[in-house]
């Protein structure tokens, strides 16, 4: 027989005489392949065991023959061959049943619990993302629900591919002529929702281990929701990403948005996992605030006036003073850091910046940890550990989605994530980074649109050159000029720079910005005055420096940019469910 793709060979010690005795009689046991099965025959028998495809359950005896290369034979000694083969075969079948039982229980425990409307179901990911591609479940009766991707009818059989969103992969349904629901599904196409109940069988098609067989005797297919094939905008063809933004309510069904959503979910859970395992406390900071963390004034005003006007703004202040949507939770979470130690916030933030670039949104999510008794080095260490943890988690859990992104979006995304996960980050001061950039300009190796000079902010083109050309790895630039950074960043001893850092990644540029916070009240007051900020408005923030001030540091990471980094998607509007930008707040 033909060995299965996951066949195993076990050689049980036996003397040469025992192995030679195998020539006196032979037995062939065709037994199912079971992961982890160990065959231990009686002592003294020289045995070679090879597993073969499930379903080939027979024992044969005959004349002596040599062990064929790649064959599926048991060679046993003497007249005990048949009995030993039969006994081992029975034991192996029992083990196979036990293994299948374990596999079924594992699938049942991880299947959707809240699905009584369809009588229960198994997520497609629990079948196809299994280590063996679902082979351990062959022969099992399963129920899956999802949305049709394709319907292909042939003479005696109809092929249906469905996806339920739990994995990038599609599961093929083979519907035999006469099966229940065949007529209904034949009238449908992409977008229809169905319930399928059938037997999981080995697939003969390329690229998949298993498929569901629906026979005339089985429960078959039930159409849950029909679709108008002429009106459905997501027909079986490739759509532009710009078109998908116009149908944001349906675009999660597309490959790219579905894959980006699963990666986003894994990154969100990896974020909480990282900080929770390290003893950080999750703090919910307010969305409505009267403080401007960045000092830039690019904030959305919140008012109860309808319509709001300059004339009635002061009279209609719901909160008693002007209020805004927050641009950052940092100032608020610092309050908890100075009482509870290591904390973090993870929530939506807003910026009224009239920018329509591929890197900016009006509404986005920020991850902002704060650590007490911590300096800039600790801050850089934590941020590096966090990013490497995220990269490892995505590589571990998002294989099918990453394969899609590598094939269709960014062929370097997987290698970039491996580099991020495995390679220590390069660390360089802002001053040295400027000198490196000026060298390549002087040599003619690079020509930038924006000027490179000490005291000026590094632009995306500069950041990407450092990571992609100069160092070829993720890079941390630290100790920036004080005039480039916010008022709360700690002034260094040179009086010209602050203890701030940015992490720059290949493909996206800056992804993390952080600093050691200014814990000295007198220095903080000087910085606020220099930037024209009112001490009275930040009285509560100043109080932290008066009552038991401690060294502390933190950083902020734009979550959407992290998703871009891990998917290769180039436009930030395509890694958030419903993008908000100038001129658009639909859906």
Number of helices: 16
Estimated radius of gyration: 32 Å
Report how far apart the termini are: 58 Å
Strand order of the largest sheet: 11-15-16-21-20-19-18-17
Mean pLDDT: 84
Shape: elongated
Approximately what portion of the residues adopt beta-strand conformation?
A: 15-25%
Structural class: alpha+beta
Count all strands and give the number. 21
> In this structure, how is the largest beta sheet organized?
8 strands, mixed
Give the helix level as a range of percent. Answer: 25-40%
Give unreliable regions as ranges: 1-82
Task: Describe what this molecule looks like in 3D.
- The protein is α+β, with helices and mostly antiparallel strands and 587 residues long.
- The chain has helices at 16-21, 81-110, 124-128, 182-186, 241-245, 255-277, 310-313, 330-340, 376-397, 399-408, 413-422, 430-442, 460-470, 521-530, 539-546, 559-567; strands at residues 9-12, 26-30, 47-50, 58-62, 141-153, 157-163, 171-176, 193-202, 210-214, 220-225, 281-282, 288-289, 301-302, 323-325, 343-350, 363-372, 426-429, 475-481, 497-505, 509-516, 552-558.
- The chain has an 8-stranded mixed beta sheet with strand order 11-15-16-21-20-19-18-17. It has a 5-stranded mixed beta barrel with strand order 5-6-7-9-8.
- A hairpin with a 7-residue loop joins strand 8 (193-202) and strand 9.
- Helix 6 (255-277) packs across helix 9, helix 6 (255-277) crosses helix 16 (559-567) and helix 9 packs across helix 11.
């Amino acid at each position: 027989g033909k060995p299965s793709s996951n066949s195993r060979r076990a050689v049980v010690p036996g003397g040469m005489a025992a192995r030679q005795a195998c020539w006196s009689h032979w037995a062939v046991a065709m037994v199912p392949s079971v992961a982890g099965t160990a065959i231990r025959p009686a002592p003294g028998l020289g045995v070679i065991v090879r597993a073969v495809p499930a379903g080939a359950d027979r024992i044969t005896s005959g004349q002596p023959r040599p062990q064929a290369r790649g064959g599926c034979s048991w060679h046993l000694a003497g007249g005990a061959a048949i009995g030993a083969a039969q006994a081992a075969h029975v034991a192996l079948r029992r083990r196979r049943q036990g293994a299948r039982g374990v596999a079924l229980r594992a699938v049942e425990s991880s299947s959707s619990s809240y699905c009584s409307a369809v009588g229960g179901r198994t997520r497609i990911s629990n079948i196809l993302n299994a280590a063996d591609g679902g082979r351990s479940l062959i022969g099992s009766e399963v129920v899956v629900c999802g949305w049709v991707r394709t319907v292909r009818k042939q003479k005696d059989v109809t092929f249906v591919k469905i996806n339920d969103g739990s994995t990038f992969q599609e599961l093929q349904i083979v519907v035999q002529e006469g099966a229940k629901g065949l007529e209904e599904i034949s009238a449908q196409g992409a977008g229809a929702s169905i319930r399928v109940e059938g037997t999981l069988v080995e697939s003969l098609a390329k690229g998949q281990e298993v498929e569901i067989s629906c026979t005339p005797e089985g429960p078959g297919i039930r159409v849950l929701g029909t679709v108008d094939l002429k009106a459905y905008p997501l027909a079986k063809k490739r759509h532009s990403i710009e078109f998908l933004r116009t149908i944001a309510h349906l675009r999660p069904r597309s490959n790219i948005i579905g894959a980006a959503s699963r990666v986003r979910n894994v990154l969100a859970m990896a974020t909480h996992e990282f900080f929770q395992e390290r003893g950080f406390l999750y703090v919910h900071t307010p969305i409505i605030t009267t403080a401007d963390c960045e000092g830039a004034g690019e904030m959305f005003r919140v008012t109860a006036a309808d319509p709001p006007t300059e004339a009635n703004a002061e009279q209609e202040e719901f909160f008693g003073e002007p209020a805004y949507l927050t641009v950052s939770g940092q100032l608020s979470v610092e309050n908890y850091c100075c009482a509870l130690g290591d904390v973090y916030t993870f929530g939506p933030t807003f910026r009224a910046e009239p920018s329509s670039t591929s890197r900016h949104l009006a509404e986005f999510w920020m991850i902002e940890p704060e650590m007490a008794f911590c300096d800039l080095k600790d801050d850089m260490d934590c941020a590096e550990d966090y990013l490497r943890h995220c990269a490892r988690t995505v590589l571990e859990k998002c294989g099918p989605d990453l394969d899609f992104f590598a094939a269709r979006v960014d062929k370097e995304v997987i290698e970039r994530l491996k580099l991020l996960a495995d390679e220590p980050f390069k660390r360089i001061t802002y001053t040295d980074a400027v000198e490196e950039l000026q060298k390549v300009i002087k040599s003619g190796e690079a020509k930038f649109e924006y000027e490179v000079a000490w005291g000026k902010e590094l632009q995306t083109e500069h950041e990407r050159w450092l990571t992609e050309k100069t160092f070829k790895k993720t890079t941390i630039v630290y100790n920036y000029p004080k005039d480039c950074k916010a008022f709360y960043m700690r002034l260094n001893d040179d009086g010209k720079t602050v203890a701030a850092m940015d992490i720059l990644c290949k493909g996206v540029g800056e992804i993390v910005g952080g600093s050691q916070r200014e814990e000295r009240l007198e220095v903080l007051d000087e910085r606020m005055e220099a930037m024209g900020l009112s001490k009275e408005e930040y009285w509560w923030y100043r109080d932290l420096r008066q009552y038991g001030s401690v060294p502390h540091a933190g950083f902020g990471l734009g979550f959407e940019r992290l998703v871009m980094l891990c998917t290769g998607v180039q436009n930030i509007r395509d890694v958030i469910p419903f993008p908000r930008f100038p001129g658009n707040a639909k859906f």
